Amino acid sequence: MYESALIAAGFAFAWLGLHWYRRRALLLSLAESAARLADGQQVRTSTRRMDGAIGELSRAIDAASRRVVERERRLHSDLRQMRVVLDGMADAVLAVDSRGRLTFANATANRLFALDAHSIQRLIVELIREPKIQNAVATSLAAGGPYRGEIAVTNLDTLGRVHERVFEAHGSSLPGEATTGIVLVLHDVTELRRLERTRRDFVANASHELKTPLSSIKAYTETLLDWGLEDPDVNVRFLTRINEQADRLHQLILDMLSLARLDSGDSGWERRPLAVVPAVEGYVESHRARAESKGLTIVFRTTSISRADAIMGDEEALRQIVDNLIDNAIKYTPEGGRVEVGCRLAADEIRIEVSDTGIGIPRDELPRVFERFYRVDKARSRELGGTGLGLSIVKHLTQALEGRVEVESRLGRGSTFTVYLPRPAVAEAGVAAARPAAAHA
Description:
By secondary structure, the protein is α+β, with helices and mostly antiparallel strands. It has four domains: 2-84; 88-188, PAS domain (Beta-Lactamase), CATH 3.30.450; 190-266, Signal transduction histidine kinase, dimerisation/phosphotransfer (DHp) domain (Helix Hairpins); 269-441, Heat Shock Protein 90 (2-Layer Sandwich). Helices cover 50% and strands 20% of the residues. A five-stranded antiparallel beta sheet has the order 2-1-5-4-3, with helices on both faces. The chain has a five-stranded mixed beta sheet with strand order 7-9-10-12-11, covered by helices on one side. It has a two-stranded antiparallel sheet with strand order 6-8. A hairpin with a 5-residue loop joins β3 and β4 (162-173).
């Protein structure tokens, strides 16, 4: 009897020990599953079908695992989408932590500051040497709130030329209980500022150019009304001056209207194949009388080009280009000089050259000669009746015809303006011939 009780107790203890061991193994398995879940891994417990508390705990862990994995999947999808959006932005975006280390840069910022994947977690002062950017980051971190400013950044291109880019900088703190860092957005406003300067300069120059002939007309008119109307020598001379200034004012308005139409894209042109040689030859002849009256020789030459070779262009646009260049050459070439106009083939383009033996242009002035109202010699230009818009019109017209214009000049030796215009991609029948040019006033 006693021995049977001992045997039963031994079996009970053994069963309890085995049950405890099994329970411990199950709990350890659940703990391991919970640890894997905490690391973001999907888990599937083997005790989910058990009854009791362990089964409920197992099923709860499995459900939590599915929710965590789904949330993580959505989070990664959102992060990829956000990265695509940020990389597609034209603005540069930089995220910097509270220690001044880069934590994120979008594609625009990478291109702008030559950053890459190895730049993350490095100090901004090491990555971006531009002091104004460094100051914007430091100011944003110190302020702990919104920051806004304008930054001018100077850099060199591959040819060693200096370029200035202007950015509007917007800084804001990253969310968190304490200051975890800032995000800095740089919006490129270089072109906007350039257009604003161009507009201001245009308004100022146009006002001045309009005021000059109007002032002369008013002065001559007042003199005639006061006393000069009865003097035959004075009234004819003053009326001649008034007529000249009125013509100058009229030409200035016409040039400004031409530029306005070009800027708006409402030129009303019809681009079609246009024979170049007959057209340019007619434009040269329209200037011959004026050139010879000034004692100049004007010639027209062709090289490796036939009278049928054409450009894709508009007759009125071509006329304005060539007329402005010839007019410029005649104005600035002294008596006894020579103006030469030429046409030649150059691959898939036709070159129109206007050369003179005039006063020339200083080397440092060449980049600006196509600016509106820009004059190398302001006093001489106004004396000769120039509006300061001729070369700007040439540039805009040439670009509108998908061509380009270049200038070469030596001070005191003369200048050569070369216009390159594209030929038709496919030869077409019925090439337009230019109408005879009207005599140049």
